[in-house]
Design a protein that fits this description.
With 349 residues, the protein is α+β, with helices and mostly antiparallel strands. The protein has 10 helices and 14 strands. Strands 3-4-2-1-14-13 form a 6-stranded mixed sheet. Strands 5-6-7-10-12-11 form a 6-stranded mixed sheet. A two-stranded antiparallel ribbon has the order 8-9. Helix 2 packs parallel to helix 5. The longest helix is centred in the first third of the chain and has 35 residues.
């Protein structure tokens, strides 16, 4: 009897599944039949279709959006990945309007977005590498600099860059990091801590009037690496002026010139660039270096703001080295997330 009851229950469940299958197919066929019989299916939703085409054009031709009007081009490029959120919204509107024209038009921005950012959705991390680096804008108002220092040191970084250091907080960071890093140098508001010897330490002039960038040669086991640390000027979004970034852009050009003139072939740039890899204003830097996140990360690696990251403005860029993996670190007492990467310095093998 128990066996018979089990068989009966199983058969009943299977019958339900079999009934649900035809019911779903009938519903789908009915919807398609309604669409096929609708003579206005191609004439409705033209506004939604136009918005979809406009979205595709903005993403496809973002570099053509002029910066002379409130730096609108750079503002768009900073948050360019987020434009993809409009795609499902437009698709929903197209379905609500029962517009075949709009549905087809929505495919255009979807394809453009996937072409621009689809590669970031895959996991490109790998094992290997011979140098781990990290960078963190620690925030001048950080209430727990000692805890922040311990957190970033726990990442295992061989070379660590810190930005937005205040004179009062520097001794705290030095004390907290002393047991992990034998060598360090602080230049203005940026600092570099290393497990390996530092030579050729000097500030880098990025046309600000005070020091927010530096360089040093790190003699790592796999070879010498020129390490740059930079904190480019902040940008602001103002109602009357738009996306104000003139000083940031000027400093980026100066930093790009310094890196181009760097005699050491292998270079890594660590810092808060206050801009994304899509921002044309950083071309002087990004055109000659690779992003570790883009080459060996998993996802977008957004780093700011820490409470709800929307953009990756904290960058690790390399020249003549191979990124192996790149990641963001857990939140600290700063409004930025730390970012880290492991790279292969010796690319001869």
């Amino acid at each position: 009897m128990a066996q018979q009851a089990y068989v009966t229950e199983t058969d009943g469940s299977g019958s339900g599944d079999e009934r649900n299958g035809p019911r779903l197919r009938r519903l789908t066929h009915r919807l398609l039949a309604d669409w096929r019989g609708d003579r206005r299916i191609w004439r409705r939703g033209l506004v939604v279709a136009a918005l979809a085409v406009l979205l595709a054009l903005v993403m496809l031709m973002h570099s053509r959006i002029p910066n002379r009007f409130g730096n609108l081009g750079s503002l768009t490029e900073t948050f360019l990945p987020w434009l993809g959120l409009f795609v499902p919204v437009l698709l929903l509107l197209a379905l609500v309007r029962r517009s075949a024209t709009a549905v087809i038009a929505v495919v255009l921005p979807a394809i453009v977005w996937l072409n621009l950012f689809g590669g970031l959705l895959t996991d490109k991390t790998a094992t290997g590498g011979d140098l781990t680096v990290a960078t963190h804008n620690v925030n001048a108002d950080n209430a727990d600099p000692s805890g922040t220092a311990r957190d970033v040191a726990a990442s295992g970084a061989d070379v660590l860059a810190l930005e937005e250091l205040t004179a009062s907080a520097v001794p705290v960071y030095e004390k907290a990091l002393a047991s992990t890093y034998k060598y360090h140098s602080v230049q203005g508001t940026v600092g570099l801590w290393s497990k390996y010897p530092l030579t050729g330490v000097e500030p880098v002039d990025i046309k600000l009037g005070w020091t927010r960038a530096m360089r040093a040669t790190v003699t790592a086991p796999a070879g010498q690496v020129a390490v740059y640390v930079a904190h480019l000027p902040s940008v602001r979004v103002k109602m009357e002026a738009g996306f104000t970034a003139r000083q940031r852009d000027k400093s980026a050009d100066a930093l790009g010139e310094a890196i181009a003139d760097e005699p050491v072939q292998k270079v890594v740039l660590l810092g808060d660039l206050n801009g994304t890899m899509n921002d044309r204003a950083l071309n002087a830097v990004t055109s000659q270096m690779r992003s570790t996140q883009g080459a060996a990360g998993n996802g977008f690696g957004f780093s700011w703001p820490a409470s709800f990251p929307m953009a990756r403005i904290d960058q690790i860029l390399v020249r003549d080295m191979e990124p192996e993996t790149s990641w963001t670190l857990p939140e600290t007492g700063s409004d930025h997330l730390p970012v880290a990467a492991r790279v292969k310095v010796d690319t001869s093998s």
